[in-house]
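We close this part of the discussion by returning to an individual protein. In the encoding step, the backbone of a single protein was reduced to a row of integers, each denoting a local shape. The sequence in question and its structure tokens are set out directly beneath this paragraph.
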Amino acid sequence: MTKDDPSSPVPVRPETVPRRRLLAGVAAAGAVAVAGCAGDGSNSADPVSIDDDRACDQCGMVIADHPGTVGQVHFEDDEPEGGRPAQFCSATCAYTYRFDAEDEGRTALATFLTDYSAVDQAVFEEGGDTMFSSHVESEAFGRETALTVVARSEVIGAMGPDLIPFSDEGDVDEFVAEYGGEAMPASDVDRATLEAL
């Protein structure tokens, strides 16, 4: 058999993958595996629209009557809030409620907040404060893991200082340039973040 003979077996060299790309792939696969092991069923939860007369599960205020970020948290234990996710008039109420519930042993499947990259928000002044409109339709929500929030900006929400979420990093930069504040991944918010508001 010669080199030009088509019936001649040609040795196949395994394709080489650059080490950096290989390690990145292994790391990504590991992260997915860890998320699966942690029992995060959040991909099965979807945001719902909030009824116009729904009261905040944390503070009792009517959600649609107030400006700013609104939120909802889906729990593993069959939504004891009456067959629906817990719903909130602000990001601070959403996180406070979720942290308290987790301290009591409940498991949050997914947290959704207003995604100001996905809505046409109105900006208005009231009593010298800058506020963003609230949005309660299901399409207005973004999954916490896909959002960046801005803390300590000039924009306030229903409960005063609030976290303003965006899914687009360009929108985050524009917001911070205009209203100040500090950006962070929404999934990094903890009790200390809320206390620092």
